[in-house]
Structure to design on (333 residues):
């Protein structure tokens, strides 16, 4: 750190932080705001700071600030124990130091790991397994037989293990295909509010270790999501698709069913994946439908608004060419 030590009482945005507060600068677009900050400490790269502002210099200020925020605003420990109004099946096994709030329903043969917290309205069907130090917020539903690893966080009203969308055509009707598989959520996964992860028809739907799903994400039956994959709001993966490791999906992006998506791929918002895409050790950024390299997509997008004018120009050139051909033919006769 460069500058004087001092007591930090709070955190604040760079343009509004004041005395006793710490702020950060990760995005260069906010560099002009640095001159007006009154923060006591700035977390950021090696840039010139105003007089009186101490400076914690680091290569990854976004990550550093996240760690500072985690340290200063650590989650308050929930009171341990089962509170009145919770329903716990006699065959359920609860680990040490669990917290179960009123209105929770824990079904037959459920196993809760040490230090796990279930907020009001959580429903765990029979045979569910939840690992250590998990947090399931209000209204979360985990259907029968599904398994959550350690340190999983599930935001309100997410549904894990609902029936996959499987129906066999039967004349002019549809016959429901029983969905008898499960969902497995690996360690350190976070699942956003109102996100749905469907149980497999047969086998397993899996979300890999360290993956982060935003609100309103749809993971269909038998999908496998690789480790450390991130999906923004309203992204969707159709049934039986396999997604590689370290992938990123922008908002409202979608992947069709029965495909393979490789490692280290980033898809821009509203991208539509309709075929297999190979990944690799080198990250790629793709956009559009079907996805193409992001730089090419940007060039293509710039042309879209000009298409009507380009069409008029092309028609004019066609007419001129036809007139020129006619003129040449007349002169040759």
């Amino acid at each position: 750190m460069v500058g004087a030590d001092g007591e930090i009482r709070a955190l604040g945005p760079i343009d509004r932080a004041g005395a006793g507060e710490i702020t950060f600068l990760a995005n260069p677009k906010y560099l002009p705001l640095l001159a007006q900050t009154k923060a006591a400490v700035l977390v950021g790269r090696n840039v010139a700071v105003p007089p009186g502002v101490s400076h914690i210099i680091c290569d990854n200020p976004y990550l550093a600030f996240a760690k500072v925020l985690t340290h200063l605003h650590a989650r308050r420990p929930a009171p341990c124990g089962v509170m009145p109004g919770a329903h716990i099946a006699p065959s359920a096994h609860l680990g040490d130091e669990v917290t179960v709030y009123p209105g929770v329903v824990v079904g037959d043969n459920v196993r809760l790991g040490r230090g796990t917290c279930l907020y009001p309205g959580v429903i765990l069907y029979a045979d569910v397994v939840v690992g250590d130090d998990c947090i399931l917020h209000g209204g979360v539903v985990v259907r029968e037989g599904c398994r959550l690893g350690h340190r999983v966080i599930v935001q309100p009203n997410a549904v894990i293990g609902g029936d996959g969308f499987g129906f066999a055509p039967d004349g002019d009707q549809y016959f429901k295909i029983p969905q008898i598989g499960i969902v497995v959520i690996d360690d350190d996964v976070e699942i956003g509010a109102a996100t749905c992860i469907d149980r497999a028809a047969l086998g397993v739907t899996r979300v890999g270790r360290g993956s982060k799903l935003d609100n309103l994400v749809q993971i269909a039956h038998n999908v496998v999501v690789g480790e450390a994959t991130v999906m923004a709001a309203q992204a969707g993966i159709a049934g039986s698709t396999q997604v590689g490791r370290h992938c990123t999906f922008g908002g409202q992006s979608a992947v069709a069913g029965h495909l393979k998506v490789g490692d280290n791929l980033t898809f821009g918002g509203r991208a539509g994946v309709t075929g297999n895409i190979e990944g690799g050790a080198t990250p790629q950024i793709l956009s559009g439908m079907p996805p193409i390299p992001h730089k090419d997509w940007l060039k293509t997008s710039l042309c879209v608004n000009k298409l009507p004018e380009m069409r008029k120009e092309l028609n004019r050139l066609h007419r001129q060419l036809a007139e020129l051909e006619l003129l040449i033919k007349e002169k040759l006769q």
Q: What stands out?
A: The two ends are 88 Å apart (CA to CA). The chain has a mean pLDDT of 94.
